[in-house]
Amino acid sequence: MVCGQRTDTLPVPLIALPAAFRQLGGNELIDSVGILKPFWEKLRMLRLGIATDTIRIVHVGDSHIRGHIFPETTGGRLQQTFGALSYTDVGINGAFCVTFTRPERVADIAALRPDLVILSFGTNESHNRRYSSMLHYRQMDELVRMLRDRLPGIPMLMTTPPGSYESFRQRRRRRTYKINPRTSVAVQTIRRFADANGLAVWDMYEAFGGVRRACLNWREAGLMRPDHVHYLPEGYVLQGEMFYRALLKAYNDYCSQ
């Protein structure tokens, strides 16, 4: 069932972006097979008061998620918009997607009875200087297969990493930083995997400037921590707000069909 009425759509709030941000990409969810349609319908029914059961979102990932600010920002905005919605983050510092390919961790995720699972990895994979796109793809496949076995029919959405730097220290010199060149490869691997396996994806890396500007935008806006990998609270809030906007735009697209 689709909405069929534009009155079901919601206003997408504007975000005040830092003046340093330039050459941003499209802030869109990619869902080529419509895997999120049942989830959007649940949200619509909830908003209209037809359904009263709490909708549960579980956001799994690395330290960007473990820090809580990014997912709590998105979850809080969704709760304000739709009401009875829970948004639980399950993050582990230093995690790769393969970190969660343990039966007990998958069981813990399944026990939360999610209506949507969000997977946010890629930063730590791309910091391995021997990064292998093939291995990364296989590890994502293992995690998704395990989750689908425990959560049949539950849609999944992947996000790409926001971008980071790698550091070098030469003898008697200060530590220097350069943009991690493997981030863009990891992003393309995530997008390719999502497309081949019927998952939705939000390309945060592209939304914030992609290979040309993502890292520069964050650094020039002063929103990265000194390690050039993690972000200040204001940076994570901005990521959460942008993700909320992308979700709301996709919901509106569904309601406009």
Automatic annotation (TrEMBL):
Instruction: Name any one Pfam family assigned in the record.
Output: Lipase_GDSL_2
Give start-end ranges for the coiled-coil region(s).
Answer: none
The cross-references to InterPro entries, in alphabetical order and at most eight, read: Ester_Hydrolysis_Enzymes (IPR051532), SGNH_hydro (IPR013830), SGNH_hydro_sf (IPR036514)
The record, for SUPFAM superfamilies, names:
SGNH hydrolase
Domain SGNH hydrolase-type esterase intervals: 62-236
Gene3D superfamilies assigned: SGNH hydrolase (3.40.50.1110)
Provide the protein name. Answer: SGNH hydrolase-type esterase domain-containing protein
